[in-house]
Design a protein that fits this description.
The protein has 2 domains: 2-48 and 284-414, no CATH class; 77-247, no CATH class. The chain is built from 13 helices and 15 strands. The protein has helices at residues 2-15, 17-45, 80-86, 125-128, 141-145, 155-162, 233-245, 268-277, 281-315, 318-326, 331-367, 379-405, 409-414; strands spanning 57-60, 63-66, 73-76, 95-100, 103-109, 112-121, 133-136, 150-154, 173-176, 179-187, 201-204, 221-226, 251-253, 256-258, 260-263. The strands form 4 sheets. Strands 5, 6, 7, 8, 9, 10 and 11 form a 7-stranded mixed beta sheet that branches. A 3-stranded antiparallel beta sheet has the order 1-12-4. Helix 2 (17-45) packs antiparallel against helix 9, helix 2 packs across helix 11 (331-367) and helix 2 (17-45) runs antiparallel to helix 12 (379-405). The longest helix has 37 residues, at 331-367. Its main location: membrane. One of its GO terms (cellular component) is plasma membrane.
Length: 415
């Protein structure tokens, strides 16, 4: 029966090319926009290079201190000392890596300035991430402890600084801000949207200007906690909360007197929203709800327009409906027929949208608008897109189908 409904839908599409064009155009444009947005959100929040383990990671990125009146607060990343003392010592995680927020520096080649984003890390940073080393290897803990001036650079910086002279880059010196560093390795760069891994050059945290010895609670570092399994993240959060709960709640930092401080080990998406909504989970739930309503409205508006097209298309088949009802076809059968037909048509539009989305995504990746952009239509994006197609097909098909299934037999046969 399902196959017969699809065959009928295909014949109807071939019968009126103009209606078919209008329907497929409306569907494909809407779904293309949604697929590109979904791909970008997956690129921004999903587990991708070099943060392939993000799905089983927690992040310590923000520490908020509040005064006794709850009217003033001081907020920023934690210090290296804080992470090293209270996060690195956790027993539940597989490993904890530390990296700084990226900062800026300059290098010069033949009088030309190269603007650099720099990052200071520990040795475990390279173990909680999945950087692809094109040459060499990361700096080791003994090198960090010894204060060796070593660095890991990206393939982009290798090309700009050493100008692809064909020689191995490992062991060569690179001068940055007047200081010479020995290149230990070359990695494939991280997209700029991955704030905790993106940089042009990576230094040990003991390198000059890292400020890792700062004794305050707040500084310029983040902790990346790698759990053994995704299920372990809740246990890590509980252990972390217990450790933080034993610390004095009040104190003074940078002339700011605080009576309460809040710091969490949280998932990437939650800590991504923390700067906007703080630690109030109810605000985050409200944000998710608003986003859901906006997406539903975005799908509903073109779906409402398509309702009129679908009604016109189905009205032309009134005589067919009348004959089927005269031979005893129940309203439920007719209802499902038109819903399935509309879903089939929507999925055809979805196929076109996938093709358009792929072209747009390739354009974005190759344009250089986002450094090392790797937007894709992966399994997650594909399944979300197909789910959207199903919802869209139902939104634009239920009302016309219900109206036609209730059509009076006599009126239908007169049409």
């Amino acid at each position: 029966m399902l196959l017969n409904y699809i065959k009928i839908a295909w014949k109807v599409l071939l019968r009126h090319p103009f209606y078919t064009f209008i329907t497929l155009f409306g569907i494909s444009v809407t779904l293309t926009v949604l697929m590109v947005i979904t791909s970008f959100m997956d690129h921004l929040l999903g587990s991708h290079y070099p943060e392939n383990k993000r799905y089983r990671s927690l992040y310590v990125t923000m520490l908020t201190q509040t005064d006794s009146s709850r009217n003033s607060r001081s907020q920023g990343p934690p210090s290296f000392r804080f992470i090293n003392t209270y996060v690195k010592t956790l027993q539940t995680p597989e490993r904890v890596g530390i990296s700084s927020q990226f900062s800026f520096a300059n290098a010069y080649v033949n009088g030309k300035r190269i603007k650099l984003n720099t990052k200071y890390t520990d040795a475990d940073f390279w173990r909680v991430t999945d950087f692809e080393f094109l040459e060499g290897k990361p700096f080791s803990e003994p090198q960090i402890k010894g204060g060796d001036r070593v660095a890991v650079i990206t393939d982009k910086l290798r090309k700009e600084y050493f100008e692809d002279d064909g020689k191995s880059t490992v062991g060569r010196d690179i001068e940055i801000e007047g200081l010479r560093y020995r290149v230990m390795g070359v990695v494939k760069g991280s997209p700029v949207t991955r704030l905790y891994t993106y940089a042009d050059v990576y230094f040990p945290y003991t390198a000059p200007k890292s400020n890792y010895e700062k004794g305050q609670m707040r500084g310029n570092f983040v902790g990346i906690i790698l759990a053994k399994t995704p299920a372990d993240r809740q246990a890590i959060q509980s252990e972390f909360d217990q450790v933080i709960g034993r610390l004095p709640a009040s104190g003074e930092e940078s002339s700011f007197h605080y009576s309460q401080f809040v710091v969490k080990a949280d998932t990437y998406i939650n800590q991504f929203l923390t700067p906007f909504f703080g630690t109030d989970d109810s605000k985050k739930v409200f944000f998710y709800s608003i986003v859901g309503v906006i997406v539903l409205m975005f799908m509903s508006l073109p779906a409402i327009n398509l309702v009129n097209v679908n009604v016109s298309r189905i009205l032309e088949r009134a005589s067919e409906i009348g004959v089927r009802k005269a031979f005893g076809a129940p309203a439920r059968t007719l209802l499902w027929q038109f819903i399935i037909e509309n879903i089939f048509i929507t999925f055809l539009g979805g196929v076109l949208a996938l093709i358009f989305s792929y072209g747009i995504i390739q354009l974005i990746n190759q344009s250089g608008w986002i450094a090392y952009a790797d937007l894709t239509i992966n399994v997650t994006v594909f399944l979300v897109s197909m789910g959207v197609c199903l919802v869209f097909g139902l939104l634009s098909g239920v009302l016309p189908a219900f109206r036609m299934s209730k059509l009076n037999i006599v009126d239908a046969l007169k049409s």
